[in-house]
Recover the amino acids of this structure.
């Protein structure tokens, strides 16, 4: 049968030419639009390193001198500090709150801020300014039970348990597994020294890799702890609160109660309650603001358009071909060929057309991938891809997107072929021959 099909395809090479060219173009195009979808989806599937359920950010605003509610008697740094301590106490004492943190504005996932630093394993590298690991930087205030690591649900890389804060936090830091591996070659880094300047910091714990953005990969992370806040006109911007609700709390009721009852209590001095944001809502908002959501929507739309073109092309081609070959179909039916046999022959023809076109376009795809690079989400110039993730391995990444593209094209092409061929194969032999 294969020889007959190949002979048939060759004899109808002119009729097949335009659909073959379309298959070439769409095969190349589909790979390029599926590649970002694969990377973004694979990145999102990576463990966040924290538990976002029940996590909220309480943002505080501050009146300036141009606002009618501004109180100049409460504008000094010392009065701002007193007022902010009272606000912090009100937030943490809410009955629905299990744990809380005074985290810097760049120190929670999907925030609009990002801070980085250079971390060294020894002073020799520090003074030479080489051999460092560029790391993201989180910090929080260890005041009145404020504990960012417990609030976020960050886990010890060795035991998988909650991380405990040391009694003495001065001069100590926590680092992510990725940062530990790149600095020391091992995740067993507790007690080791790290340097950001001439003063060393002791590693108090190593936590599992942590994602700042849901659609990005974990970045080396170092977490600093401070004993207290500093009075400042920028306190509201510098020290938002992150709270985790107790299990079983009705979140809708909590949000309503907090905004109606607690919000007004947070208007102390020149500060006022600004917003209560859920971590999951912040993730969606950042994905939208950063263009990730629109990027995915565009890629899905382009994929759908390409597949629709292939579907209509295959339907049109094999509709014409099956009508033109009605006599052949009638003869095949008259000598005992079943509908299934006829349909199978046409499907194999479609498969051979698609596969030949796809194989021919692979060298061009490989050249495109090597020249322009595979799709990368990380825009940070210091980002070093982690080879443990499949999307960062060139060969595997390229092959996976290739297979996905081929399978999607094959399914659409076979469906587009099956519809007109089944119709033609159901024609009775006598009717097909009489019409001819």
């Amino acid at each position: 049968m294969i020889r007959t099909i190949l002979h048939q395809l060759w004899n109808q090479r002119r009729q097949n030419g335009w659909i073959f060219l379309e298959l070439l173009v769409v095969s190349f195009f589909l790979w390029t639009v599926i590649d970002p979808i694969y990377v973004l989806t694979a990145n999102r599937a990576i463990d966040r390193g924290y538990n976002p359920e029940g996590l909220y950010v309480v943002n505080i605003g501050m009146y300036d001198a141009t606002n009618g509610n501004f109180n100049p008697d409460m504008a000094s740094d010392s009065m701002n500090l007193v007022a902010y301590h009272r606000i912090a106490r009100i937030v943490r004492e809410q009955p629905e709150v299990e744990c809380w943190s005074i985290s810097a504005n760049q120190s929670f996932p999907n925030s609009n801020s990002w801070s980085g630093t250079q971390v060294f394993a020894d002073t020799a590298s520090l003074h030479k300014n080489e051999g460092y690991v560029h790391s993201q930087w989180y910090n929080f205030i260890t005041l009145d039970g404020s504990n960012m690591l417990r609030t976020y649900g960050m886990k010890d890389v060795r035991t998988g348990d909650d991380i405990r804060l040391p009694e003495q936090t001065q001069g100590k830091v926590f680092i992510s597994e990725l940062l530990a591996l790149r600095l020391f070659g091992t995740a067993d880094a507790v007690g080791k020294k790290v340097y950001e300047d001439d003063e060393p910091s002791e590693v108090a714990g190593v936590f599992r890799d942590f994602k700042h953005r849901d659609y990005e990969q974990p970045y080396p992370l170092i977490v600093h702890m401070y004993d207290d806040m500093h009075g400042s006109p920028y306190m509201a911007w510098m020290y938002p609160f992150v709270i985790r609700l107790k299990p079983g709390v009705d979140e809708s009721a909590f949000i309503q109660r907090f905004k109606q009852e607690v919000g007004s209590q947070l208007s102390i001095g020149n500060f006022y309650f600004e917003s209560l944001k859920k971590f999951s809502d912040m993730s969606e908002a950042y994905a939208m603001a950063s263009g990730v959501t629109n990027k995915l929507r565009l890629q899905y739309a382009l994929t759908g358009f390409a597949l629709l073109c292939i579907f209509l092309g295959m339907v049109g081609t094999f509709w014409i071909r099956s009508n033109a070959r009605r006599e052949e179909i009638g003869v095949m039916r008259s000598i005992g060929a079943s509908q299934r046999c006829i349909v199978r022959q046409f499907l194999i023809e479609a498969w051979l057309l698609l596969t030949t076109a796809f194989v021919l376009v692979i060298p061009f795809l490989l050249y495109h991938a090597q020249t322009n690079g595979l799709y990368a989400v990380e825009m940070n110039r210091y980002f070093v891809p982690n080879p443990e993730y499949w999307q960062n391995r060139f060969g595997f990444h390229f092959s996976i997107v290739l297979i996905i593209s081929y399978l999607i094209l094959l399914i659409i092409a076979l469906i587009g072929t099956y519809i007109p061929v089944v119709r033609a194969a159901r024609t009775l032999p006598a009717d097909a021959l009489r019409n001819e």
Remarks:
- The chain is about 50% helix and 15% strand.
